[in-house]
Records
---
Amino acid sequence: MRKAIRWLPSVIWMAVIFLLSARTADDMDSFLPFFQWLFPAMRSFDWGHFVAYFILSITFLWAIGGARPGWLMKAAAVGLCLLYGLSDEYHQSFVPGRMPDMLDIRNDLIGAAIAMLFVSIPLVRRAYAALYRKLVSSTKY
């Protein structure tokens, strides 16, 4: 049962991504304009996808990786993000004014990969392991 509950953050975050993907193009035009203003050279970079998949990869790692995940688990988290990103782009093909875009997949993978690099920083890695052990050992399910 513990392993199933560790997937809950991933399932919730995938639902958030699904709901955001269901928004029409007009709704999305006003989403995260601050980043485009802050980084004008990166106008083609979709920060929404980057942030969403940065978070999603960490939730996947939480579900599959344990307290001290190795590179194989981190690669698996990025791979799961790729699969979900592909399904997300397919879903967008049914939303008015939206269409699948390979640049979105690129941004998804960049976000997921940078998240795995971030979790590999020694200070972050120790904090992640401590939080994981504390939460897993303290839950009585």
---
Amino acid sequence: MTLLSLTTGSAQAASWSSYLDGAYPNFESRRWADTGGSTSIQFTNCADHTGATSAGVTLRKAVDWQVDPTYSTASFTNCFNGYNSSSSDGWDDHGSGNYYFAVNLGATYSDLDVRVVNVNY
């Protein structure tokens, strides 16, 4: 007698890490496929060569044939306070799709470095 057991796993959260080196205004991160759920973004150790002490981080959804929706912008300031200082924010579920974040939308100039970028979705 063979017994077959099938189980279904719950949706697993995914994440990726990277860094920014000289991100200019309107810089767009890599895209990631999300099946739905909340998203959080964290920057650790920020520096802007223009002297700025904040970075605007905006979650966006890539959509074909129309302007990509823009969700709220978080102002990251604490990550400018030292090597291990971090800033983070979260966004609610906006459905499945391909997402990315943009930095300093509409700014006239920035030159942002971030030692560690963590995205969890």
---
Amino acid sequence: MHAASGNPRGAARPRQEGPTDLRLVPPALAAWATAALTLGASPGWTIGVVVVCLVVAGALLVTGRRHRRRSRGEPEPACGEPERTHGGAEPTHGEPEPNRARRLLWRTWPKASVAAVLLCVAAAAASGGLHGADMRRGPVPELARQYAEVTADVEVTSDPRLTRPRIRGAHAVPTAVLLNAEVRRIEQPDGTVTATRTPVLVIVSPGSESAVSGDSSGAGPESGAPSGKAHGSPWLSLLPSTKVRVAARVVPELGDGGRVAAVLRVQGSGPPQVVEEPSGAQRFAGELRGGLRAATEGLEPDARALLPGLVVGDTSRITPELDEAFKATDLTHLLAVSGANFTILLALLIGPPGRAQHAERRGLAPRLGIPLRATAVLGGTLSLGFVIVCRPDPSVLRAAACGSIALLAIATGRRRSLIPALATAVLLLVLYDPWLSRSYGFLLSVLATGALLTLAPRWSAALQRRRVPPRLAEALAAAGAAQAVCAPVVVVLSARVSLVAVPCNLLAEFAVAPATVLGFATLATALWAMPVAKALAWCASWPAGWIADIARTGAALPGAGVDWPDNWPGALLLACVTVLLVLIGRRLLRHPWLSGACAMLLLLVLVQPAPLTRVITGWPPPGWRFAMCDVGQGDAMVLAAGDGAGVVVDAGPDPVLIDRCLRTLGITRIPLVVLTHFHADHVAGLAGVLRGRSVGAIEATGFEEPLDQAEFVHRQAAARRIPVTRAVAGERRRTGALDWRVLWPPPRPAPTPEGPNDASVTLFVRSAGLTLLLLGDLEPPAQQALLRSPVGAELGGVDVLKVAHHGSAYQDPELIRRAAPRLALISCGADNPYGHPAPSTVAALRAGGATVLRTDEDGAMAVAGEGDRLWVAGV
């Protein structure tokens, strides 16, 4: 018994908790594993597992009951005799009662625990088998194998989303609209109509009218995406629970781990034909989300994109470039409405979790005089609204389930530790939706929460014993524990280990709470007081912008990450390395000076100062004049133009790769960016060139096709107020020791180019005695016209030739013979599907006496030297 505390509220502090209750952990893990295995199992195997588990569990429970009776001295009931519920014979063996109780617990507890595990396994097997059967039930799987064209009524089950822009060769693949749905009615090619309930993925291809209007909000000037033409699609306005009728081709599903039975490809069908409006709850949630988007419309680009993602998981405005920055710093959990969002809201209502059941509890509820159980009911309502508005993603479901269990404990007045709450949440969610057992997001969410509940308190205490301030110790321990546990799983998804994850998460943590609270306040007020909502959104934009800046800064560090094998052996290796580092770190903490030296070494690895890097790696070589970046299947080159300055010729297909190359070269100022032509493998990486650098101008060919890539370049330039000029033959420029002349295209192209390749800007460059000929993607017609032009006679005997069109077979032999390069460089991607470079082209270059190097085999290359001295250094 505990005396009353004397607090005005009259409640006493609960007694201290004993050891952590882990009894629910084995059943939760067993159910998780069983659900993952049985989703794809045959019905007979699943039924067998259920029957065996139920029989064995029943036998264990009966045996445990008999042990309890024998320990109490109760006789076994005769056949037909009712069991005794109380009383019974007195024990005759004289053993003290406490000893008998302990012996009874020792004998019966393992059997009860094993029985509980088996019952959970049986339940998970049944649930997984039923959900897996949904993938095989009905006509949809067979129609997918036939690639049949059908008319179907589908119910939308997720928010529509856009595919990320992708580069395929010289072209950007237009974005498509994706949405998860359930087929409720399907009309087969023979006219048969069948009612069903089959989960599918609907893809609205760009060929449809509804998917090509307007600019994508995710492909604006800062996106780094050359094309994004789906924002105006009415498909994007569909809400979950809406039923639409589509004419589509049914194809097999290959990439979602079996969660959908097939894919419905919709193309050229125009706007969706709505047959049933969404539910009232979904309409209200859609209005709330729309109000949040409207309130954030006038913010800075990063805050406008990030705030809806932080609050409700709306990532439609997140640009590919910003998304890559969050991935590089392991901050993507902030874009997925993680459990942290709900925890912040719950703490705002009931106070810190550690004091929620104390008499002097904190939070808004006690300040408003709301009783404890009414607080729990209010919290439950908040949980339900949170799931509806933020959508039932794995992390949202897990956070809401844990919060609901904690609220139930508050309502009943019984204390619960958080480990059993987490285990119960996992068990209930896996039984409710077995597909979560195969979700990486759910796995990462549970692992991070488990680390915060188990490792973080111990690490925090250890840091505090070494005189680290408590707040800093808690933050360090939380970030470090979550990163240590989640990193082996993250590396399977990203093939890269972030070295800046812990500091970036620490710096971002201070802004998450104010951004979340202000963001939800914006969400709540947008429908009835838009001016207030806009003011709140403006306040929230400051912490949101801080988080975006942290992500960008961390991702821009040269040593931000390390490439790692993206398989489970690689994950196991990383786990072993992490354990080793933790063990070493424990010893380092005892030696402050040694710890400081290690921290300084890590800082040097992350920042990689250019002089130090050049000394250690030899890259870039002293006096380099020309560099060819390794950007995969594309072109990106740099002409040295002084200390920290360089002229960039083409930007490659990926902004991350070109940005990384320019950082290693130490380029901070770019007098001119030359884009030889507008194919995506030459211009899609432009955002990476412009990122954080001073750019004087952009010069490009006058043949502006493909049109979408040309528009992308102009949007990028206009957003940064960079002038765009047209390159024409005869133009000559000079900066420092660098001098170049434009050889092609002529002011009025003759002959008219057959395509963008033949309109490529061709440069003849002189740099400290070296001569270089950069041909872009010129093909034989333009190459022959170049030789016949007045400048054709000047092409003889160059030092370095950038081979046209990635070394394709379409080359003019006379141009190769006349150029007679000493060094021929080819930019192409490893295992590209085009066969670049062609063996015939490589053979012709070597026959002319050239040394041939290629980025798919030799990586990035830098050329240095002058006169007869010429050498090449690779990364």
